[in-house]
Design goal:
12 helices; 6-stranded mixed β-sheet; alpha+beta; 449 residues
Length: 449
């Protein structure tokens, strides 16, 4: 029987040292999908994100700003960002969402880290406002099979023991998940009378803060939902983990390695390397990246014609001719260039099309990959362009490496992208283009692969 397995853990904004210990434990776990809550823009959380990315996991990061908290998803199964979290207008980094292709079709996975509070009016209002905003954003969730996991910082109304500190609006949010949004508390569904706690205070009082909810249509597929107390008891975190298993098959399993061996302080946190020297042609060598700890910066262009078709370049690894893919035109920054400068130059050199104007940045994609026998680390800004003239105005000027690696180019419709079995970069391109054309891709997003 095929099983979809998930785990959620509050990583508690770890230091780099504690994040490495958390990584060792998470790497030993068998679950397909890991939802990490209480992340921050810190060295520890960066280590976790980069290690899972380097190991081949699909990573979706809510990218909290300094001082804010966020959520990180790392998945051995293909998952692509979706636009649900864009409905959150208040503290949006406390949510992350993606679409997980399965034997049942796409499942929406939502990771949440709900604000905590004390007795102060400011923090009480912050939590109330966020819960109200999230409740509104979840409207219509019942129309799409959904899994919702994370540290909700709310208790079920019948929680044992009963605490007088919690307010009616906090219990109302829990009730709304079930009664309004038709989601099922997976642990309570399978353990109707059990008393379990995922966080224990200094006085020994226990709280069940960490939750997994699923759509009612998935209830019959729930196989297990249990707390794993090892992280709390060994002080990896002040929270226990929560696992869930469902009789569902993930249809695209990625090739992954051990993330605990993919991370090392010298590469992840070492000093940034100097930019490679330019060749006599004035262009950067495409086969000479900076070390993995210092991503080479680049830019690409999502180029649309008047029929909303996108131009993709067909490329291959010259050392592995059977490894080929379709990608957006673009490349690495030359010294002194801005990403926008690079985008225009690369499009002209690869396609002959001159861009007088670039649209907004749509996403920033950070990726690690193997090319010509070496590991590479890139971070690229991707811009929109809709030129009036999509015919080449100048002759393409390709480097020797590009002559070996570029096979051709083609204009694709969004329907053709969705139907193809060819490798696309980024893998989420069909969904991203669909969102762009639907007008729902309105802010730059971060992609980690």
């Amino acid at each position: 029987m095929s099983v979809l397995s998930l785990l959620t853990l509050n990583v508690q904004s770890p230091s780099a040292e504690r994040a490495r210990r958390q990584l060792d434990w998470l790497a030993s776990r068998p679950e397909d999908v890991i939802v990490m809550t209480e992340t921050r823009a810190s060295d520890g959380c960066r280590l976790l994100a980069e290690a899972f990315t380097a190991a081949g996991y699909a990573v979706i990061n809510s990218c909290p700003r300094p001082g804010e908290h966020g959520v990180l998803i790392a998945s051995r199964l293909a998952i692509r960002p979706d636009d649900w979290k864009e409905k959150l207008g208040y503290l949006p980094s406390r949510a992350v969402s993606g679409l997980l292709p399965t034997s049942l079709g796409d499942l929406r996975l939502i990771g949440l880290y709900v604000p905590s509070r004390d007795a102060s009016p400011e923090k009480t209002e912050r939590k109330r406002r966020w819960l109200d905003d999230c409740d509104s954003a979840l409207t219509g969730t019942d129309a799409h099979p959904t899994l919702l996991l994370g540290d909700l910082n709310v208790l079920e109304p019948d929680h044992q023991p009963r605490y007088g500190f919690f307010a009616a609006f906090e219990y109302d949010f829990y009730r709304s998940l079930s009664e309004k949004h038709l989601l099922i508390d997976a642990f309570r569904h399978l353990h109707p009378t059990a008393t379990e706690h995922s966080w224990v205070g200094r006085t020994g009082d226990g709280y069940r803060y960490d939750h997994a909810f699923c759509s009612r249509s998935l209830a019959d597929r729930l196989l297990s939902c249990d707390y794993v107390h090892e992280p709390r008891l060994t002080k990896l975190s002040d929270h226990s983990a929560l696992t869930a298993h469902l009789a569902i098959e993930g249809v695209r399993r990625l090739v992954t390695s051990d993330p605990s061996t993919a991370a090392s302080p010298p590469t992840l946190f070492g000093p940034a390397a100097p930019a490679p020297a330019a060749r006599t042609t004035g262009r950067m060598p495409t086969d000479a990246p900076a070390p993995l700890g210092a991503p080479r910066l680049g830019a690409r262009v999502l180029l649309l014609d008047d029929q909303d078709r996108v131009l993709l370049i067909h490329a291959r690894d010259p050392d592995e001719p059977d490894h080929h893919w379709w990608e957006l035109p673009g490349g690495g920054l030359d010294p002194g260039e801005t990403p926008a400068d690079t985008a225009r130059r690369e499009v002209a050199e690869e396609t002959g099309i001159l861009l007088d104007h670039l649209g907004p940045c749509l996403w920033v994609r950070e990726t690690r990959f193997h090319y010509r026998g070496r590991q590479h680390h890139r971070r690229e800004h991707v811009y929109l362009a809709r030129p009036a003239n999509v015919q080449p105005q100048v002759a393409p000027q390709r480097t020797p490496n590009e002559h070996l690696g570029l096979l051709g180019q083609r204009w694709w419709t969004v329907e053709e992208l969705a139907a193809t079995t060819e490798k696309l970069l980024p893998p989420a391109l069909p969904e991203l283009l669909h969102q762009l054309l639907a007008g729902t891709l309105t802010n730059p997003i971060e992609l980690f692969e």
